[in-house]
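User: I'm writing a tutorial on reading structure tokens. Could you give me a worked example: one chain, its sequence, then its tokens, then a sentence or two explaining what the tokens reveal?
Assistant: Sure. Here is the example chain.
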Amino acid sequence: MLIGKEIVGSEKSRRYFLLLISPITWFRCFSLIFGRTRARTPRIAFAQYFILSCVIILMVGSCYLFYAVTSDSGQYSLYLSDVAANKTSMYEGRKRFDNLIWRSVLKTFFLGTIFGLIQACNFYLAAQWRQRLCDRFHELLFESSNGCVLYETSQKNEDMPRILTSDIKQFTTNFCTVLFGSIFFAGLISVLIAITLASVFLVLAANGDATGILICYSAFVICLLLILPSTQLYNWNLLEQSKLKGILRGYVQRIKTNAECIVLYGSQRVELQYIKRLIAKIFSSMLISSISFALVNFPIQLLTALNGMCTYVMPAIVFFFVRKTQTTELAQAYLTAIPLYSFLITVLGQLLLIIEPALITVTMGDHLWTVLNRLENIEKEYKKRMEYERNYAIRHDDTNRFTLEHFNISIPDAIDGSLLQSDINLDAIRRQCVLISGPSGCGKTSLFRICAGLRPIDAKQIILPERRHLLFVPQKPYLPLGDLRFQALFLLEHRYNVKDADIYQLFKAVNLQYLCERYTFDTVVDWSTVLSVGEQQRLAFLRLFAYFTLSSNYNQLIHETLVLFDESTSAVDAKTEHEIYANLIRLQVWFVTISHRTSLIDLHTKTLHLYLNKTSEQQEQIPNIQLPEITDDFNANELYEAKQSQAASKSNTNTTESLNWRYVMKIFQFIHLPFPKDDQYLKLQTIIAWIVTLLLLGISTWCTYRFTKQTASLYNVLSDYSSSLISLDSAKQRITSDIVGYAILTIATPTLFSLTVGGGQTIASLYSRRQMIYLVDFLLDGNDNNLLYHSRHLTQIPSFISHDISELNSQLFYFIFGHIYYTGVIGQIILAIILSILLGEQDGGPLGVLVVFLFVIGFFIFTNILSIVFNKWVRLDEMKFSEFVTGHKRTDLQAEQIALSGKSACRIEHEELHERLNSSIRYQMHSGFLYSIIVGIVRLSVVNTYLINYGIPAAIFFYSWYKEGLADPTKASRFVTLSVYMYQLYSSWNYINYFADPLIRIQSIGIRIVNYLEHLRKTKEHQYHLAINEQKREYKRRKSDEASITLNHVNVYVPESSQLLISDINLTLSPTDSLIITGPSGCGKSTLLRLLAGLIRPNENQATNFNVRICPRQNTIFLCQQLHLIQGTLREQLSYLRQAHGLGSITDDLRVRQLLNEFRLGHLIEQYSMDGQPQSWFRLLSIGEQQRLMMVTALVVGTDVIDLLILDEITSGCDEHTERIIYEYLQRSNIQFLSVSHRKEIEEYHTCKMTIDANRHSYVISRHK
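And here are its predicted structure tokens:
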């Protein structure tokens, strides 16, 4: 099978940092926002540009305030130094301190407020720009001519749901983050302004000496050169990992969609093995990601360590060893400039942090630019093609003719231009209904798409009504979201004031009146999953009756419209089909039908038969149609007079759950799920990873402690010299003796921390693999496990398996072991305790510890109170975004049906997605505004570092020591050094405010996962108890001794309901019998098969003496109406059911070739070979070819294993000749078969027939001679 083979080396060799410095890429990013998209109204556009102008002004103001706060910090050190040197008195020093401290407090407060306002504007613009981009893409998809762009993107596997949801949101969010900053760093505009200000004022403060600035820039360049290649590796790996996760999500989504089919095949373990191999690839990618994340983390942590060196040590080195002259006055100037060095190196570090969102921005922006160009080119090419066809008289619009002249049908996307059909000629006028028939694969559906304008015309001339007068009804109808009333009146422009009684008559006309008993007209469910294919097809005809009888311009529509059917009754019984067509004829509807059924010939005026040898045959028929008598059940005139009803309003009740200890324990239990029994090596890997990471954490913490002490010791040299406490030679000697060890610690500390973070992510990848395997095992392990079927409505499971589990573990171990932006909670607690002890040992240290704790706890309380409220909005935001994603996935799956259904369907889907987008944008802005308050508080705590580091030591000295009479002027220099310990302790504890981000994510994702897992466990437990009850009531499946199938007193009910479908079935079949079950759609045929398969349990109203005996599942193959074909080679597809039954891959290629030729599929070997390139067979083949391929897949299992074949409408897409070939082969084989079908033509191939009467809930069994 194919596992991520589409990820090729072209992406691997791409240099993402070249995109980062490319002006063309940045031009594209800005053009996407400001050039190629537009706001919905001029008022919104004005608001966006006004807010953009305001935020730029705010960023300039924040840079000035940041500089002012930093400059004030240097003054505190100067005051202490002057007192220590006896240049000013204690009184004068305190007075100067009093004049400055309150100005600093106000500046700090205003700076935090401005940061919050900037982030509020950030989130507003990100949401608005996302809306602009989505609107442009939606415009191209849904407002293009004939839905051509929507159709083409679905055929080309563009993955538009991901592009229109995740990619656009990532691009706009990261684009705004680059420009305006985040909780962790300032925006690019602010950083560039701040770097300029810091450089200029540093030169002035150091009396023109730029050596320190050059050292800071050199440190930044070194870190930049280190981070670019590691970022290249990290981003490439993230993209590959994202693609692999996308493949996993898409595959699990297919499994959920085809859950019934897979459970009936008994192929859960085959799918399980495939998913485990895919998880192993994702795990390998995650391990590489852990290593590359450590490499990315190292330059950033190195610059953080260099921040301490450049702030406290580098000025002393420059002063004592670079400058030619040293005086105490110059030493004080350098002491004053120290906060500015900190300011410069901090903003340079933030420039490194911007690289990550900048890379995402340029990568996504370049991708979106390419996709947008491609969509626009599709529309341009389509308009050019349509113009060409009209200018050269190839396509004519004529309301009353349907003509094909020298019409050719080519193979889609064939390189050599091979033809399926050539030189087709047909001419029909209004009221001459045409039946187009032919074997599967002859090009009938392609003709259908050409008429819709979705494919180019290869003909001398084609004449048909213009597109707005064409109605296309495909084999699988389009079912939009909405209630049952909306489904029935979908084609009507005005759906108000239609009486319920009239709608009921429409349902009765297509034998769907029982739906009105099961549901109200206001019921909203996913009708595409609730209704069978036959019910969906009859619903499509019901819409036609409503369109031609309830529209106010009924006569005009009848004389203008042409309806084209493509196998639209393939799952409808013959009697209902005849009644439907008879009613269409009675209403004088003009239609063209594509179908295999010969029973429709008499209902058409002309027939066109296509052959596989590229020829066609046209015949004219004089219909002798026996129309059923008009009854009160369907009166066209009466329905024509009816009014239309008001559309029902949709209401969604969304609930959120708060995090409590119950959920904490459940999340903890989920994280520590049992290890897989067949993978004990994973347990050993996890234990080793924990030991190594904890060891690295311990060493890293010790290095940080030593680094802090060494920094304080070296910084104290400059402070003591400026206070004239030591000589110049003594100062140089102290620096020389400590600098080598300090340099080693400067490298070792970030290295060990980066390895610790990488180790944490390695553990996260091990836990992710463990949980993914547990969940897929829980869903798929064991052929008797039907949990996959009963959980198919849980639509979020694919996202949980592919993305949420890994995100949960990443965030958890960021929290535990650290991230680029913060230290992990374990290291932080240990380090904070050590630094608190170290600070407490200094003069004034205990009071400094108290002040730090009070500030940190205050900020922590504020951020966590807001986080509790914010978390509710985040979950609402995620829920609305998930609904938006689901809407796009649903649209993508029905893209062809939507395009064929015309502008009304495109408009409905556009409006639905527009509404979901608005809701998602609204909640994104609400959560963003609240988050901006948290950002403001957190950034206030960061800016407050300067006040804590420099202002508080001065305050302790001037107030606490002075009042107590302990003030010794020479001690003032010690309080200058105190800022080093204050900085390290406050920075360490201040990381606690950053924990709000991972904790919110852990909470949000964890609650969703444990809720769904709990639901899965309850479902499995419920099914287990039902199975036990069945055993108590003697519901048995055992290998037959005399009869192969026995049903005694079995009642069939609507699942999860007490509504009876078939009453008291008593049936016995010998091994030589074959049975066909017939009856109208919805009578319970497929439900009976599900009961036999064990997918549904007998109703509690079941008779107590019921009994079911059937061949064991391992000796039975169910082939249901909904097929599941894999993505892989032809050999892998043909071996699929063999592997499901514990057999290996096929080895007898000769027999396989004979079977393929027997079923008219020999061309597959010629075109693709047995071991050729992997193919998506479910996309490549027509419905009829898929059905025949699954028959061959079942038959190659062998008669020594298979005793019974159960076939549910398995030949609905095949013509009569092919159908006859299939059943003649089954008759020759030694396999017993049971069929469900509407077709009378195949009854002769069965020895028994069960006819179900839907009205009486009874049945009749007859035997054929």
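What the tokens reveal: The radius of gyration is 37 Å. Residues 550 and 574 are 27 Å apart (CA to CA).
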